[in-house]
Structures are given as structure tokens and as C-alpha cells.
Amino acid sequence: VTARRLPKLRAALANERAEVRGRAAKRLGQLGDRAGPALPELRAALADADATVRAEACGAIANATPIPPPADDTETVPAVRP
User: Fold this and answer.
1) Of 27, 54, 55, 78, which has the fewest Cβ atoms less than 10 A away?
2) DSSP readout, 22-52?
């Protein structure tokens, strides 16, 4: 997975099919910190009706977020915590 596919993967997170959303989240997780621009969509995927999508989104967020998260990132940790 390359960063040039980022826009398609971000869009796939809104697909009507859960398996497409889950696969997109998993592939974004493989991008590591290059998936940073997709964090808003990944945070939204944490509320997905499908448990697999939520789990893949959580993993992708973990891979895309440095430890500790940047001080100006006030959304990621509270979104993942629940």
C-alpha cells in the first residue's frame, strides 16, 4: 500500500459494505504515520456498526499516531479510549 492510494482508502471508509470499510482501515494501518491525513475518517470509523471495522480503525489509528501523540492532537486519544 502506498501513500498515493490514501485518497481512495479514505473514501473507502465510507463505503456501504463493511468488508470494504474494514479492508480500507487495515490498509491505512499498514501505512503507519503516512496515514495521518486519514485520522478524521479513522476516528469516525470507531463508531461504525461493524465490530471488525472498529477494530481495524483502532489499529490503524495506533499505527498512524506517534507515541506520545502531538500536544495539539486533542481528538485521537479521547476517540480511542472507549
Assistant:
1) 78
2) HHHHHHHHHTGGGGGGGHHHHHHHTT-SSHH
Three cell numbers, residue 52: 471488525
Q: Rounded to two decimals, what is the model's pTM?
A: 0.83
DSSP 8-class letter at 74 = -
Residue with cell 470494504: 20
Sequential pLDDT tens for the chain (82 residues): 566 789 999 999 999 999 999 999 999 999 988 898 999 999 999 999 999 999 999 999 988 887 777 777 777 767 766 6
Query: What SS3 state is found at 82?
Result: coil
CA–centroid distance for 3 within its chain: 14
